[in-house]
Amino acid sequence: MTNQATAAPNKLDAAVFKIAGVVVLGAIMSILDVTVVSVALPTFQTEFDATYAEVAWTMTGYTLALATVIPLSGWAADRFGTKRLYMLALLLFTLGSALCAVADSIGQLIAFRVLQGLGGGMLMPIGMTIMTRAAGPERMGRLMAVLGIPMLLGPIGGPILGGWLIEAASWHWIFLINVPIGAIALVYAAVALPKDAPEPSESFDFLGMLMLSPGLALFLFGVSSLPETGTITATKVWATMLVGGALVIGFVLYSFRPRHPLLDLRLFRNRSLTIAAISLFVFVIAFMGAGLLFPSYFLQVRGESTLHAGLLMAPQGIGAMLTMPIAGTLADKIPVGRTVPFAMALIATGLFTFTQVGTDTSYLLLCGSLFVMGLGMGGTMMPIMTSALRTLAPHETARGSTLVNILQQIAGSIGSAIMSVILTSQLNKSDPIPGLTDPGTGKPVTEAGAAIAHQQGAQLPLDPSLLHRGLEFVADSFATTFWVGFVLVLATFVPIAFLPKRRAVSRPGGDPTGDGDQAAAPVLVH
Question: What is the pTM of this model?
């Protein structure tokens, strides 16, 4: 038995890297699968003869499963042990992937995606708990930088991998590729992860579960339905958001009563955790929401293939890979409140370029801007997450990582919904083309709709000047939407201004007072 938190505090040793490798494998599968499937939606429509609204449930069902299972992760990790739970999550995810690959109807595919989500929802919070306990507070920044690689590369590598697999093989392979990776990760986890030492049994908060998990699922369902309906006044949007929001608020009011709540909101008494969590929440809404539209711009305005659009996103990943190790090291030495604002400034600078996009904006300029944003991204997300978790005592890490993951999931859904609704609203303002209707819906085809269809390969007997006018309208719609993202990024500077600017001092037992002094006892790894 070795004391990982106190041995070699200034660097990550081989034992910690061995544990990190397991978590990174799981994170890669979970995060890649979200973006890989996004590029396959048109293929699903053709293969299963389904509408876009139906195939979109392959994404929504996965997200709702994540939201449902994440709140259970903290309690289950303490009760059953992180190794057992992590291996169960890997097994569910791998099994769900194999079943998705053999689905022969859209209903089956959606059901198997939900099974995938139940496993994927536990991989990230449990993985963060494992890594936090293995590294100890003094090395949190470096270790979170390791975990941040798949978190940042997933949205970039997913479209590239998905586009290549669909073009080179078939849609089945976007799921089959997870099977060998999952099998390797299971064996690796069995060998590398430390033996479980679960806490004494706690009473399970059934009432909290009946409020929080359905509440999150209903709220996110309503949010996810916004792009489809285009308005918050649609019944399935406002009604589900209202019921879901009421259940979540009910849980918040109730959660301070039981001794062991499903989600420990008492952790917000820690000032450092609270400020970091708010910063992360606002940041994810701003950046992830806008980030989802970058590939869409290349596809719908510039007429690129899915594979080429993914490749054009690569500079962002390269930038993040350059700064993330540096940011991880700095997070262990310099307060994040002194470094994160500079990284956010890089993101704002890069995103501003996209507020000026047109139909022929230089790819050199756009790729350079994505690279600058990647530099900023690598120095933002993981340092903030490090700040959120490092002041927690060892027995609080499972609950803390669960809390952070839920906030990140909700923020990502809200951000993508906001940007999708704004873009859809802008595109719907385009003038209809007289005498031209969509054969599927019977609705008039707009100039913007015709331009997008033309860019994606449709042969339309229309005047080139009309298509050009429609394409300019689409580009302007993207620019307007990116302006909203830019303003949200600027708003992120408000909470990050309160991130700690003094280095925390470690002391055993945690920092329940939350005044910034780091609190973590040595972590024992078997």
Answer: 0.73
